[in-house]
């Protein structure tokens, strides 16, 4: 018998930073994940200084770049919902 467990509680970001055009996120479960800026249309052409201004919003459920007018949900990032 195969048992599949689902966990509906969203993961939250506790820290976010940019290094070598990769967005890094530390999650509340201890994982650190990263993805290249090329995965998102508004991030791929952004200046490094604008990328560095990433903020954690919505109590850890989203990332925000004010100057780029870009918001990404942590759930969307984890699910691989890219917007090229």
Instruction: Provide a count of the helices.
Output: 3
Major beta sheet summary: 3 strands, antiparallel
Number of strands: 6
Main sheet: which strands, in order across? 1-2-3
The first-to-last residue Cα distance is: 40 Å
Q: Tell me roughly what share of residues is in helical segments.
A: 10-25%
Q: What is the 3D shape? A: globular
| Sheet/helix structural class | alpha+beta
Q: How big is the Rg?
A: 14 Å
Give the strand content. 25-35%
Low-confidence stretches: none
Strand/helix succession:
EEEHHEEEH
Question: What's the pLDDT, averaged over the residues?
Answer: 90
Structure commentary:
It is a single chain. The chain has 84 residues and is an alpha+beta fold. Helices cover 17% and strands 35% of the residues. The chain has three helices and six strands, in the order βββααβββα. The chain has helices spanning 41-44, 48-51, 74-79; strands spanning 13-19, 22-27, 32-36, 55-57, 62-65, 70-73. The strands form two sheets. The protein has a three-stranded antiparallel sheet with strand order 1-2-3, with no helix packed on it. The protein has a three-stranded antiparallel sheet with strand order 4-5-6. The longest helix is centred in the last third of the chain and has 6 residues, at 74-79. It starts with 12 loop residues before the first strand and ends in a 5-residue tail after the last helix. The relative contact order is 0.22.
């Amino acid at each position: 018998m195969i048992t599949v467990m689902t966990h509906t509680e969203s993961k939250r970001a506790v820290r976010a930073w940019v290094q070598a055009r990769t967005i890094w996120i530390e999650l509340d479960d201890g994982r650190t994940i990263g993805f290249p800026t090329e995965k998102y249309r508004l991030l791929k052409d952004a200046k490094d200084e604008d990328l560095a201004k990433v903020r954690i919003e919505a109590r850890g459920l989203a990332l925000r770049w004010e100057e780029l007018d870009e918001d990404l949900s942590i759930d969307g990032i984890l699910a691989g919902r890219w917007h090229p």
